[in-house]
Amino acid sequence: MSDKQKKPQKLKARLPRGFVDRSAADIHATNEMTAKIREVYERYGFDPVETPLFEYTDALGKFLPDSDRPNEGVFSLQDDDEQWMSLRYDLTAPLARHVAENFNEIQLPFRTYRAGYVFRNEKPGPGRFRQFMQFDADTVGAPGVQADAEMCMMMADTMEALGIKRGDYVIRVNNRKVLDGVMEAIGLGGDDKAGQRLNVLRAIDKLDKFGPEGVKLLLGEGRKDESGDFTKGAGLNADQIDKVLFFVGIKDYAQSAAQLAELVAGTANGGEGVDELNTIGALATGAGYGPDRIKIDPSVVRGLEYYTGPVFEAELTFDVTNEKGEKVVFGSVGGGGRYDGLVSRFMGQPVPATGFSIGVSRLMTALKNLGKLGQDEVLAPVLVTVMDGDVESMGRYQRFTQALRSEGIRAEMYQGNWKKFGNQLKYADRRGCPIAIIQGGDERAEGVVQLKDLIEGKRLSGEIEDNASWREARVAQETVSEADLVAKVKDILAAQAEDRRRAKDV
Fold first, then answer.
1. Is position 91 annotated in a ligand binding site?
2. Is 134 annotated to bind ligand?
């Protein structure tokens, strides 16, 4: 076969695994949601800051999931000077680097928020993506737990600003120091017990899934599931298990605080942790945030090696149906805590910090479940149709389009093959255009335009199924002078908006 006869290889269009293309509807919904979150953060006195997607890999440090090699868990490349750079894994490590690098210029406490993509070089799966958006707020340089308490209040306010009503969410608070105190109290305090401590934490984290009885098995010898698979336990004795279960089973913190203080008495940090939880509870209650909104809950376990004090989690408490058809609580949409060690890595001096991170796509899923997103749907543009292709007519159509745009109305002039007018109305229908503007030679001679209310037209012509009949039907169509075009379009759009509002209220 000659070279001429060889067909060129067609490039295959493939989306990389673990990544998604985002639609206009998804982007508009995200913008709507993040604008509401931003408004709350700004109200609390936080300012935006933005760091790049790449950091030097050593700046991400031990907070990588696995740090044996630069590409484990993160996407990395080598710079021309052979330094490893990685796409950021979260928004917190880059903030720590930014604060340390600009420490002499920034005003402490430094209160900032950031929204942006983070990247995980992990095996993708259902609901697990390699690129996703987080929205963080952090206070650096405030050692007192009032900064942690305020984070929790801000998260509660954020949930309500997004339309999640009281009773459908709770901000749950625990403390790393208390958990460390409990571990020390049951004899798991030393470095040599780190592996066993991790197994205990993993068991506690399964409380929602398996309940107290399941956790009891995981704290002891182990647990066999329905399929017969056996998970080895943490190997605690009965007395140790009772103390851990008492701690994570506390439902009414006020009633159990004294007993908890007794349990951790004499440990390095346990008593301090209990005092911090008591202070957070008192500050929240004093500011009007009762336990229905901010709740001290010792079962909260968040990647605790990262945190040094209070930890918190925003949980949505309403039921949703999972892929198996079961009713389950929606669960966590964000969390955070105090991480006093993170900035200090760069500084050689202690720098206190506390922060919160929202998982944007997970929270969006929740809001869609509640019907709270897309309320401010973005209208498709008004379509200026093209009846004549000569330069003079085109100039006039363009002038109509610009007149609408200059008044803040989304508008576009038809850009396809204008000779088949039916295709223009098909386009308007598929695009969801609210109005079509039509001017042929007759209208031009009279200085008028035809306005077709496509929303009303579709409603009135519901029984007309084929496109030709719909095109001929002159329903919801009126003639106005060119001078009145913009005002009339505004009237029609306002009437359509009112109809939509009434339909929602019904």
1. yes
2. yes
Q: Determine whether the annotation assigns residue 307 to a binding site.
A: yes
Residue pLDDT, tens place only, 369-417: 888 876 556 789 999 999 999 999 999 999 999 999 999 999 999 999 9
C-alpha distances (whole Å) from 488 to each of 283, 382, 424, 437 are 55, 12, 21, 11
431 has binding-site annotation: no
Confirm or deny that 47 is annotated as ligand binding: no
Question: In 3-state terms, the chain is what percent helix, strand and coil (to 5)?
Answer: 40, 20, 35
User: 3-class SS at 23?
Assistant: coil
138 is in an annotated binding site: yes
* pTM higher than 0.90: no
In a domain, 159, yes or no: no
Summarize pLDDT for 6-38 with one digit per residue, the tens. 677 889 999 999 999 998 888 998 999 999 999
Q: What is the CATH number of the domain that holds 473?
A: 3.40.50.800
Q: Does 34 show up as a binding residue in the annotation? A: no
Tell me how many domains the chain contains: 3
Asked if 436 and 383 touch (Cβ cutoff 8 Å), the reply is yes
Query: Does 61 fall in a domain?
Result: yes
Q: Identify the CATH number of the domain in which residue 322 sits.
A: 3.30.930.10
90 is known to lie in a ligand binding site: yes
Range of the domain at 438: 382-505
